[in-house]
Design brief:
The protein is mostly beta strands and about 60 residues long. The protein contains no helices and four strands. The protein has one domain. Strands 1, 2, 3 and 4 form a four-stranded antiparallel β-sheet that branches. The chain is elongated. The structure holds zinc ion (ZN).
Amino acid sequence: MEDRECINCKIQMKEAWINTGAGVLILEQPIKGFKRKACGVTTYVCSSCGHVEFVAENKELFK
Ligand SMILES: [Zn+2]
């Protein structure tokens, strides 16, 4: 959880949920097999222009 600013409006974005049926969005490493690492995604939406941003919860996985 962090403060995100809309790139268009420069106001604070609100946290949102993406409804995928399961309620969560999972980001995975782009490799084949069962040992892929994955993490959740936090979603933010701007209440002024509607811009949506996804932020990986564990970005270190992708280094
Ligand atoms: Zn905005």
